[in-house]
Design a protein that fits this description.
By secondary structure, this protein is mostly beta strands. The protein has strands at 16-18, 24-25, 36-44, 49-53, 59-60, 63-71, 83-90, 104-108, 111-115, 127-135, 143-147, 154-161, 170-176, 185-186, 190-191, 196-203, 219-225, 230-237, 242-243, 247-248, 259-266. It has no helices and 21 strands.
Length: 269
């Protein structure tokens, strides 16, 4: 595997803080009843600069999960003051599996320029999602701006989860880049009772909410679209320990292998 380029060439996106009202604290959380404080979703069409907000009901102690997606452009593996939790990059529609950060063979700062040729290669810019998280404190702003190179469409979905384990926020992840179905079939992932399952779908074509409806037992947390892209985030609290199993969206769906899917289990205390 080739050595990475110097990471000093490009700095990580700064996620510029924009002052907003601070968040309030809450008391003890009932993990069996409370798990989500809402979500926000936004698209920056044909623009590498995106401004995104924490959900209005976010509380001190929550953990924000940011699903940052893009078509035909670079996505960062690092953002200042956020931690990366998962990623799925595609170089072409029928790519067999997601590229991960570990598959990158050439970097320029926080960006991957080339993925392992033995795994299919390419630059991973056809479509991708990177998941970041941060724990909310009383000094956190309510809004951030991220500037990325280029002028292709970027979108972000942010959700606030309660009672997250601060030492290990993410328990398991799994992704797929070509499920070969008109509906979207999320990969199965292991979780524990009272953990939270988040299902992220970025789609390289426009779509409406009704085209990809929540898989059974989940709810739609966030949705955004543009003229040639769409993003969905579904979620649920896990009621038992084990594999999540096959979870398929309802609705008519869309062309096969035009999506990138991430199943992520949030580890709760």
């Amino acid at each position: 595997m080739e050595a990475f380029l110097s990471e000093s060439t490009e700095a990580a996106p700064s996620a510029e803080l924009i002052p907003e009202p601070r968040f309030f604290s809450i008391g003890n959380v009932n993990l069996a009843e409370e798990w989500n404080h809402g979500a926000t979703a936004v698209t920056a069409a044909n623009d590498g600069t995106i401004k995104f907000y924490a959900p209005a009901d976010t509380k001190v102690g929550d953990t924000l999960f940011l699903f940052l997606s893009r078509t035909d452009g670079l996505l960062p593996l690092r953002i200042d003051q956020w931690s990366r939790g998962a990623e799925c990059f595609k170089s072409f529609n029928r790519q067999d599996s997601c590229f991960r950060a570990a598959d990158c063979v050439k970097r320029d700062g926080p960006y991957c320029l080339e993925f392992d040729e033995e795994l299919g290669g390419g630059n991973g810019r056809d479509l991708g999602t990177v998941v970041f998280y941060r724990h909310v404190t009383e000094d956190d702003p309510g809004c951030w701006t991220v500037e990325l190179p280029g002028k292709t469409t970027v979108w972000a979905i942010v959700t606030a989860i309660q009672g997250v384990n601060r030492d290990r926020p993410i328990f398991r992840t799994s992704g797929t880049s070509c499920d070969a179905e008109w509906e979207s079939e999320f990969p199965s992932v292991y979780g524990k009772e009272n953990d939270v399952l988040l299902l992220s779908q970025c789609f390289d074509d426009t779509a409406l909410k009704r085209h990809f409806q929540p898989p059974e037992g989940t709810e739609l947390l966030g949705f955004t679209n543009s003229v040639d892209e769409a993003g969905f985030l579904f979620g649920k609290r896990l009621e038992e320990t084990g594999m999540s199993g096959k979870l398929i969206t309802g609705g008519r769906g869309g062309p096969k292998c035009k999506d990138a899917l991430v199943s992520l289990v949030v580890n709760r205390e």
